[in-house]
Amino acid sequence: MTFTVIGRCSRTGKLGFAQATGTPAIGRRAVRVIPGKAVVVVQAGHNNYLLEIAVELAKAGFGAKRVFDAVTKSDPYSAQRQLMYLETSGRGVALTGAQARPWCGHIEGDDFAVAGNVLPGEKVVTSMATAFTQSADKELEERLLLALEAGRDAGGQQGGEVSAALFVTGAFAYPLFDLRVDVSREPTGELRKAYEWYKPLAPFYSDCYEKGIPALYKDHLKSIGWPLVPFQDGKEASK
């Protein structure tokens, strides 16, 4: 009961994903980003043990075929799953099991892949792919979120979504964006709100980490006139 986009930015080397689902607190249950290496997905009945198999093989440098073979051979329910894989170079690759719950399917492309199950129709994934490919001039995090919103607007999850997540890494091991909405009637909309407020903090935290200085985020937000309270109207900092 999920729709997911995984992507890479060829300009910056960023890797990440965005996902929405009818399952609460999806977070990183079904997707893992290995900085500088790959993004792996085990969805349509997420299973942490299967995801860890994929992660360890990706860390070791194995490609999609080896990863998919290992996961499916370890899984008696592989016909119900969807798998996705994206390396730091090359096309995104996906696999939809013959017994995955309809509507289900995926699209592969250069530097991305989208997949979904329990959707009202194919338009959800085609809209996601279009949104991602037509926004190549934007940062990866924005492209992923635009694709997720396009999937929602095209019908989203049958029965609606409950949780959503956005995760992006750059050149270093830590995430630039690790945002999630665990329980909501409109998790993708709430994720957008969190993203818009958090955006100035992503480069700030990275700069602090690389310089080894305290990350005094409130001082930074005040210095740029950004609200200290999330979702506060206007751009004036809270006192």
- Could you tell me the CATH topology label of the largest domain: Glutamine Phosphoribosylpyrophosphate, subunit 1, domain 1
Q: Low-confidence stretches at least 5 residues in length (pLDDT < 50)?
A: 234-239
How much helicity do the residues have? Answer: 25-40%
Strand content: 15-25%
Keywords:
alpha+beta, Glutamine Phosphoribosylpyrophosphate, subunit 1, domain 1, six-stranded antiparallel beta sheet, four-stranded antiparallel beta sheet
Offer a concise description of the structure.
The protein is α+β, with helices and mostly antiparallel strands and 239 residues long. It is built from seven helices and ten strands. It folds into two domains: 2-198, Glutamine Phosphoribosylpyrophosphate, subunit 1, domain 1 (4-Layer Sandwich); 200-239, no CATH class.
